[in-house]
Amino acid sequence: MVRVEGVGEVTDADFGFEVLSGERPVLVQFTAEWCGPCRQLAPVLGEIARERADRLRVVQLDVDRNPGTTAAYGVLSTPTLMVFRDGEPVWQTVGARAKGRLVRDLEGAGVL
């Protein structure tokens, strides 16, 4: 998993506390070490995390190391992006995308 400034890491053990009980929306990237598109998306997520820190928290979850959460949310492909608000998933997409498109998608979903 690519470490990115501004993007946290969550696990099966702390997902409930870090994501589901958050006061602001949380964008979770379900990722893996071997995932090329995940590596391409990482800097985009880092920029969004830094620029929109007041409105959105961004974290990564390694699907290979955290099979419980991955299975619980039916994640079958990486990168899967999922936004949680008030403990519930409210938006989801699969695949890497350019920053502009991702921001527009998040704005259209009422996340940003």
Automatic annotation (TrEMBL):
Any one of the GO CC terms: cytosol
Gene Ontology biological-process entries: cell redox homeostasis
PROSITE patterns: THIOREDOXIN_1, THIOREDOXIN_2
Disulfide linkage: C35-C38
InterPro entries noted in UniProt: Thioredoxin (IPR005746), Thioredoxin-like_sf (IPR036249), Thioredoxin_CS (IPR017937), Thioredoxin_domain (IPR013766)
Gene3D superfamilies given in the database record: Glutaredoxin (3.40.30.10)
UniProt KW keywords: Disulfide bond, Electron transport, Redox-active center, Transport
GO molecular function, one term: protein-disulfide reductase activity
A Pfam family of this chain: Thioredoxin
Boundaries of every Thioredoxin domain copy: 1-111
Family classification: Belongs to the thioredoxin family.
Alphabetical list of PANTHER family matching this protein: GEO12009P1
Protein name listed in UniProt: Thioredoxin
Gene source species: Streptomyces silvensis
Lineage of origin: Bacteria, Bacillati, Actinomycetota, Actinomycetes, Kitasatosporales
